[in-house]
Structure formats: C-alpha cells, structure tokens
Design brief:
This protein has helices at about 10-45, 45-70, 75-80, 85-110, 115-120, 125-155, 160-185, 195-220, 235-270, 275-310, 315-340, 340-350, 355-360, 365-370, 370-385, 390-410, 425-455. By secondary structure, it is an all-alpha fold. It has two domains: about 10-235, no CATH class; about 245-458, no CATH class. Mean pLDDT is about 90; it is low at about 1-10.
Length: about 450
Amino acid sequence: MKPAGGAPGPSFTARVAALAWPILIGQLAVIANGVVDTMMTARHSPTSLAALGLGASVYVSIFVGLSGVMQALSPVIGQLYGAKKFEAIGEEVRQGAWLAIFLSALGSALLCFPGFLLDIADAPAELDRQVREYLALLALALPATLGFRVYASLNTAISRPRMVMAIQLAALLLKIPLNALFIFGGLGVPALGTPGCAIATGIAAWGALLAGWIIVRRGVFYEKFAIFGRGLTRPSWPAQAALLRLGVPMGLSYLIEVTAFTFMALFISRLGSEALAGHQITANFGTVLYMLPLSIASATGTLVAQEIGAGRLQAARFAGNAGIRLGTALAVAVGAAVWVARAQIIGLYTPDAGVTAAALPLFFFIAFYQLFDSVQVGAAFVLRAYKVATVPTLMYAVALWGIGLGGGYLLGFDVFGGTPPLLTGAAGFWLGNSISLALVAVALVWYMRRVQRLRESE
C-alpha cells in the first residue's frame, strides 16, 4: 500500500533506522561525558566526586530545560525542508542563533548565581566552593552547548545526523585528556579537581561549535539555505515568539521527566544508603537504555515533519506509525534481554551484596516499562512534528508528577497500610513511575491519532 504522494509504507521503517543509529551513537557519546567526569573525579577525592554530583544536578536541570526549548527548531526546519523552502530554513537558523544567545544569558546568570539552589543543600564550605567554581566555569560553556544545538537541530531536521555524531564523538575524545590535565594537573597546570571538569567541558563545547560552524560555512550542501548570505540579521520577535510557543512546553516536558527522577531519589534516600544505591544503579542503566527509543523517536519526528511540510499528510501518518512500531519491537527485545542478564549487569556496577539485592527487583521495572517508554516518546516526537507540544506537556505533568511520584510515595512508604511488602520501598516508587508511563503512553497515542485525523481532514 502506498501513502498518498509518498514511498511505500515499509520503507519508512528503514528510513527511521538509517536516521536513528547516528543519533543514538551521538547521544551515547554525550552521556559518556558524564561517565568520564564521574570516574575521574572519583579518583581525585571524595569531595571532588560529591561536588560533581551536586554541581551536575544543578547544571543538568538548567541545561536540559534550555536545550529542550532549542529543540523547537527541528520540527520547524523539518517542515520547511519537506516543503523545499530552503532560504526560509536559513532565516530560522539565524533566529535559532539569537534564541541560543538569549537562553544562554538566562542560563549563565543562573549558573553564576546559584545560591538559592545551593542553600537547599547546605553543603560544607569546601564542597560549596568547588560547586560554585564548577558552575561558574560551566556558564562559559553554556553558550557553546546551546549554539551547537542549532547545528544539531538543523542537521537532524534535514536528515544529516552523521556529522553531528562525528563531532560529538570527537568532543568526547578531546575531553578525556583535557579532564586528566585539569583535574589532576600537569604541564604546569595545577590540579583543580571538579572545576577542572568544567574547563574541559568548555573547551570541548567551543571546539564542537567551531567545527559545526566551519562545516555549515564551507559545505556546498548548505549553500542553498543562504544561512550566511544576509549576515546575522536582527532578531525577529514574531519568529522568536513562535519558537518559544513550541519550545517552552518541550523544555518543560524534559524538566518534568528529570525532576520526577530527582524527587524519586530524594524520597528513596530516606530508606537508607543501600536502597538509594540500588535505585541509582537502576536509574543510570535505565537512562542508557532510554537513548535507543529517544533516538528512534527523534528520527521518526524528522521524517514526519518533512512529510507534513511536503503536504503528504497520509505519508506523515505512515512514517509516525512505522517509527513507533520499530521502537516498540526493539523495546520488547531489549527489555527481555535486560531481565535475563540483570544479575550480570548489576555486577558491572557493584560487588556489594546488599546493593545488588536492592537493585535486582528494580530491574523488573526497567525491563517492563521499556515498552511504554518507547511508545510515549515516539508519540511525543510525532506530535512535535505537527508543532503540538502544550497538551503533551500537561499530560506529562499529571502522569509523572501526580500519578508517578504521588502514587509512588503512597506505595513506597505504605501510607494507607496493606501494601504488599514487595511493592513498598524503592519498588513502590518504580511501580508508580511505570504506571505513569503506561498511562501517558496511552494518552499520547490517543491524542496523536486525534491530531492526525484533524490535520488530514483540513
């Protein structure tokens, strides 16, 4: 069966897969930056590791929210690319650069003056000093990381994610020796500990941005977009408002997901160090697994946006369905593999028997909810391709904060009594989170179908 004006339906699966694998590798490279920071600061001193944990939690919350706003560029550029409005893409890129500048000013101010956040932690003086230095140095890196999102959004939206992947891998390879130099000292550089991570991050981030700028500036493929033909034009406030209308709900949805897990950890910490360690292992591995459905969803959203821009709305629906099917099939396979290998996976994290015993039952949930996680993120990215983000964000808030955290609290601490012992403690929080993901997956798919029907009937 052929979608109207499009390629045969099954070809969409292959196209999604071809776009998804470079996005996946690039995302894993980004995650590896945090792993490298953790491993190296752990060898420097316990205080450095604690400073990294506290500082990174502040930075990630700010960066994830602002980066989510920047991702509004992808569906906008994707639709323009499908419609072959190439010079309009150049203007959106220029407006995206302005948006990155504005958001960087906001984010850098928060990083330079984090007192209202750090006061909550009430950390010892030396720890507080290292965290503040770390965040202040990251304020210098934030404009580059958000600027690189413009390059990444452009290339993803026009089905060219491989160069993004290559730059992200190169940045990781550059960061490793820079981390060693600035954390431990050498070549006349003093040992800086945690702040050294921030310096290495800044150099790698500005290097990545420079590489992206050179590729776009000199690449023959990009000439048709006339990105530099008019110079850096002034901000267009209607264009900025349009990006913010789509981007702010997207950024909030990422913040909702991050804060849901943050508060899970805070509540579970009341249950003891072994329960918290088991949760952290499970959450860390779950984050790595999430990169697969996230990459497939990003690739799916790109194809859907391009088909919408080309006016092939039926083909857009086929592309969305193909991407969600692919993500679902892989999620089932990955979930089964995780459950079978759960003991070996946990063994890679810790030899401690108590922590292992705390983590083992939690792996049932990350094996189980892969299906729902894949469906919900796939449907969310399809809706973003239609430039629909506000209602999905409200669904996330109700499900993840209300049902996930609220229900998890009631189960985890057995507030009303009578909860089976297997579903109390950390398991109760993970069950609440799993139920919330299942509900939001159903709700998003229903809403996606509704949006698709409305657009096709116009």
